[in-house]
Write a structure and sequence with these properties.
Blueprint lengths: L1 H33 L6 H13 L2 E2 H8 L3 H13 L3 E5 L7 E5 L1 H46 L5
Antiparallel strand pairs: 1-3, 2-3
């Protein structure tokens, strides 16, 4: 039984190293993609979320990004100063406002989205159609597990 547990633990260590290396390489790729844009990776993720979902309230945007509203306020302020974002007053609740992409922000979002599209094309080319479907199905399953907290226990 001890030998079986040891094999199991060795396999988990191998998976852990592979996952860490994958994330490191993906992060390096993302850093290289944004390096010439003048925005940080965190700022680009904010632009991406708004580009994918459309204008959003600050509170829901902060929750989605997993940051405090104070941190988000600083990010939004910096991006608005550089004309990537616009702030719109909420007519129903004057204390609240929406954040949306400016024309410059939309252009940056489309450029970054295009880079992601090429990354996905590369994955499909490497894995093939069938394995790509399986890979992304498993990825979705893991995302769902993270959302409900199964992987955080």
């Amino acid at each position: 039984m001890e030998r079986k547990q040891q094999k199991h633990d060795e396999r988990l260590e191998e998976y852990s190293r592979a996952l860490t290396e994958f994330f490191d390489r993906l992060n390096s790729w993302e850093q290289s993609v944004v390096s010439d844009t003048g925005v940080s990776l965190a700022q680009m993720h904010l632009i991406e979320v708004i580009g994918n979902r459309g204008r959003m309230r600050m509170k829901e945007l902060a929750q989605l990004l997993g940051v405090t509203t104070g941190t988000l306020t600083v990010m939004v302020h910096r991006l608005a100063e550089r004309d990537y974002l616009i702030r719109l007053k909420d007519e129903q609740d004057r204390r609240s406002y929406f954040v949306d992409l400016s024309e410059k922000g939309k252009a940056e979002y489309h450029h970054h989205h295009h880079m992601h599209f090429h990354l996905v094309e590369g994955i499909v080319h490497t894995l093939g159609e069938r394995e790509s479907e399986q890979f992304f199905a498993h990825l979705k399953k893991l995302q769902d597990a993270l959302i409900i907290g199964v992987l955080n226990e």
